[in-house]
## 1
Amino acid sequence: MRQRKLPPRSQCLIVVNLPEAEATTTQARLDHDLQLLRLHMITLFDGDAVEPVASIMVKAALRRGKPHQDSSPLPLKVVL
């Protein structure tokens, strides 16, 4: 049995309460998630530091878990 190589924890983060896209294609949902993530990162970096946010490379982003019945957004796992 092959084991998956997991990214180091220092390169992963979980984002909660980030609204999910209503798009039907996977790429459109991913683009929406990354766009919202970058907007929130700008506020984390004090709004003036847009350049550091642009230099952050996202290797992977995926929603974790099964859809909730109350339609709350799933957590977003981001690998940097």
Note: The longest helix spans residues 26-44.
## 2
Amino acid sequence: MIKYLLLISRQGKLRLAKWYVAYPKKEKAKLVREACQLALGRSARFSNVVEHRGSKYICRRYASLYFVASIDKDDNELIVLEVIHHFVEVLDRYFGNVCELDLIFNFHRAYFVLDEVILGGELEDSSKRTILKYIQVHDGASEEIEQAGSNGAAAAIAATVGALKLRRRFECGEHRRQWPPLFLWTCVCLLVLFFSFSIAISCFFPLRVGG
């Protein structure tokens, strides 16, 4: 059983980490440091298998990446080497001449591919064609969901804009009904002042004449 699988760059950067055994956070950090030291500090002439702290480390280099897997001491290291190579071949077919940048910018896809190859620390499927078929189906479904979400968001935005325009028109109509034009208000005010002035004069002069 594979305990964990790490992908480490030549600069010692962790590009992918999959844990199949529960470890505390501090223990994980310690194991990653040890794996980096074992992978980067070994010459290409040395064996791909290293025994350390009661476990076996399977280390294999592809271009600028080191694939490091930890297994139990009694497990078959040759099978794990083939599993790692199988995973690399699937990545290469999926991305097309895979490189480190593909794993950096598409790490979520790399994890998905890994989950189709290894499940619970054991080889899940040995057929690259079957794995790629499942991945293509998943990618197609994801694209349809994203497209449906985009169309739904666009429809919601369009409906919101339409509702705002309709509300604006309604409010403008109410505004015109409630508040007449300035010219009409001016005429009304002048008429009120004229009649008020006329009434005041008619009331004042009879009082003076009668006095």
Note: Strands lie at 2-9, 14-19, 49-52, 55-62, 65-72, 118-119, 122-123.
## 3
Amino acid sequence: MFLQILYASDRKVEAEELLKDLTQRSFSCMMLGEEDTPPLGISKPVVLVLISPGLLGSEYLKGLMDLAIMCDCFMPIIIGQPEAELPFRVKIYSVINLNHPDTRAAEFECLVRSIMHKYL
């Protein structure tokens, strides 16, 4: 099953490493940086938005959340320990710590598989 992952991050190196790990595990990933424009018309079965704490509260992030309303399944995931509250109502599905490269990909893969099993 196709899984689209949008990664809104100001931590590009960690983001690229995680997505590389996930791609090796047969996930189809799409990276979206803060300077990029969110793609329109996302209609894939599952969209995970991985958010780093540095983007919390940004207008870019709010636009991404607005876009996500159109998705079949939208699961926002915070990367690292967020220190700020989101300025709008959205349920955060999970928190993943990017500082542990040995466990982050496996932890995320397990999370993704549980989401896909639940929603697909």
Note: Confidence is low (pLDDT under 50) at residues 40-45, 87-91.
